[in-house]
Amino acid sequence: MAAPVVTRRATVMAAKVKSKKQKRQQRHERQRRNIYGTEERPRLAVYRSNEHIYAQVIDDSKHEGKGHTLCACSTLTPAIRESLETGANVDAASKVGAAIAEKAKALNISTVVFDKGGFLYHGRVKAVAEAAREGGLVF
Predict the structure, then answer these.
(1) Are strands 53-59 and 43-48 parallel, antiparallel or unpaired?
(2) What CATH number does the domain containing 122 carry?
(3) CA pair distance 63, 66, nearest whole angstrom
(4) Which of 72, 124, 121 is nearest to 100 (CA)?
(5) How many domains does the chain have?
(6) For residue range 23-44, what is the model confidence (pLDDT) as tens digits?
(7) Is residue 120 situated within a structural domain?
(8) Is-contact 48 117, C-beta < 8 A?
(9) To which H or E segment does residue 63 belong?
(10) Is 113 left (phi over 0), alpha (psi -120 to 50) or beta?
């Protein structure tokens, strides 16, 4: 039997295919060139996984631009986790948004820059943003 023939073109085309994760990371890197958190106006970064949602308030001016997390909250936080059936829905994201706003207010942070992490501003990411705004954060 003859071995299957693989053309050069097929190999090149396969190399250009990028995963959803790689595309999201590229979008995030592109957005991060313009989004920078300062001491007066830190960055509210959101990450969404299949099971949970995470939010952090970050001051990028510290640690040589690598950033310093001022406060964080997620669906894994014990106080939020107890009241949830699952961490992968809009209700859970709203609770995370309200909790991160409360923690930021405790640190006298009222204005932030929203970093959606390469995700679409829709669904759970939007729910975090709206709940944080209702909690008193301005962005």
Answers:
(1) antiparallel
(2) 3.30.420.100
(3) 5
(4) 72
(5) 1
(6) 999 999 999 999 999 999 999 9
(7) yes
(8) yes
(9) none
(10) beta
